[in-house]
Amino acid sequence: MTGDGSESRTYPTRPYLAVSAAIFRDGRVLIVRRGRPPAHGLYTLPGGGVELGETLVEAVIREVREETGLTIEPVILAGYREVLARDAAGRIERHFVILPFAARWIAGEVSLNAELAEARWLEPSELSGLATTEGLADIVAAAGERLAAWR
Description:
By secondary structure, this protein is an alpha+beta fold. It has helices at 56-68, 136-150, and strands at 16-25, 28-34, 43-44, 47-49, 71-77, 81-86, 92-107, 116-122. The protein has two helices and eight strands; from the N terminus they run ββββαββββα.
């Protein structure tokens, strides 16, 4: 436990549940670059931890608003990702289960918080040249397909 009563996300006693959003606007997806750990410097989707008593949809709406200032409509889950990192001694340093949503942009322009260093609206095909979190292109592709099928 940390001093504020919450458990540490480094060397956790259990996996942490997180959400993210592949937000589409005019055929482009919002990609953000992390400004600090975890995944410092990598491009990824905006998102973060689910809080106690919060639904997944509430969490992704809140996290996107906090990180980017955008209002979104989460439409459907686009898969899952697991982040399991061990230190040099083999101990579990981080363990996240991330549920990415396919989402539509509703309103707002990107205004980044301190966790993020950059944001770009990109064609999904433009992800291949970037340093991204593992599986990002696959999640974006799945999100785009699920949004297209949803209409």
